[in-house]
Amino acid sequence: MSVLLIAASPSLHSRSGALLGAAAERLHHHGLPTRTLKLRDLPAQPLLHADFDDATLRAALGAVAEAQTVVIATPIYKAAYSGLLKIFLDLLPQDGLAGKSIWTLATGGSLAHLLALDYGLLPVLSALGARSHIDGVYAADAHIAKNPAGDYQVADDILRRLSTGAAQVLDRNPRSTPVTSPVTSPVTSPVTSPVTPPALVL
């Protein structure tokens, strides 16, 4: 089974990145191998101009095509998912998510932005062919606070919801063979091979 984690924040360190890192840890707990695509690391010019001749952009789109499950983590700005994610999704073919399970994760300033997933992002993903949706997880700023060391700490109730979502990923896409550790072949940046990530790496 192939799981692709998409980090859609333009920031190097972000709450949505911490949320994605926590989700990855729970997927790894089930022995599910993952790869990570950091949209902020994609070359700006090819991305903005849809230059499909660019090798890095082709590798990113190829990673989506190969994945059985796609996990998307995005910050919510003004009741909308990140513009970086919008640009990338626009490059996918019309059926680019057909047959895939999708798990959406999001962070925002308050619970007022909770419905941005259901009314903003999920319709776009469905239009791209996604039909199987893992229960999304939304976390407000208060759920991912900074600890005294300056690192983001995900609240326990959010961690429990991530554990539930990771179990759903496994249920919908059971492994054909046992996996004892998440290992895949290295690929070209910005799609990275899996290691169990600390919460702030993504």
Can you tag this structure with a few keywords?
35% helix, alpha/beta, two-stranded antiparallel sheet, seven-stranded mixed sheet, 202 residues
Please, could you describe this protein's structure?
This protein is α/β, with parallel strands linked by helices and 202 residues long. It has helices spanning 15-29, 44-48, 55-66, 83-91, 116-127, 156-172; strands spanning 3-7, 34-38, 69-77, 80-81, 101-108, 132-140, 144-146, 152-154, 191-192. Helix content is 35%, strand content 23%. Helix 1 (15-29) crosses helix 6. The radius of gyration is 16 Å and the shape is globular. Residues 176-188 and 194-202 have low confidence and may be disordered.
* First and last CA, distance: 21 Å
Main sheet record: 7 strands, mixed
Structural class: alpha/beta
Low-pLDDT stretches are 176-188, 194-202
- C-alpha-based Rg, rounded: 16 Å
Number of helices: 6
What proportion strand? 15-25%
Mean pLDDT: 86
How would you spell out the order of helices and strands?
EHEHHEEHEHEEEHE
What is the total tally of β strands?
9
Q: How helical, in percent, are the residues? A: 25-40%
Q: Estimate the global geometry from the Cα principal axes.
A: globular
